[in-house]
Amino acid sequence: MSNLGEQATPAQRQNLETLIRKGPPNGQFLWPLELATSASAPGFGYLMPLREPLYPHHLDRQRLYNLSQPLAAVQRHPQNPHVWGLNNLSPAKWVMTAPDGAIRNVEPGRSVTLAAGVKVNFGAVEGEIRI
Predict the structure, then answer these.
(1) Handedness of CA 115, 74, 52, 36 (dihedral sign)
(2) 124 closest CA partner among 47, 69, 61
(3) Which terminal Cβ of the chain has fewer Cβ within 10 Å, N or C?
């Protein structure tokens, strides 16, 4: 989810609502699904569909437009279809920090469970799961 509420104007929010209602021009567009608000935080955000896989372009600012080889993919847990994870397809290990501060390595071929507050250091950039 992206949070724009504290920066967006009322007109921009209305335009976003209109675009969500109309839907994408075609299936090639990555398009917001709906607006999201929280009783505990000001502003609003929007939900986007999962788009996979992740390429060097997404995980390293020095490798813009590099779509040579997928480095990560969202996948279901093989034994529990209700659990989703981010599978490390890269040749390098990642470092995951759980919401409780526990740190563990994510070796190539292993996955990180997609849960709120999980942080993943991909090497050149760090991401945080926000649900």
Answers:
(1) negative
(2) 61
(3) C
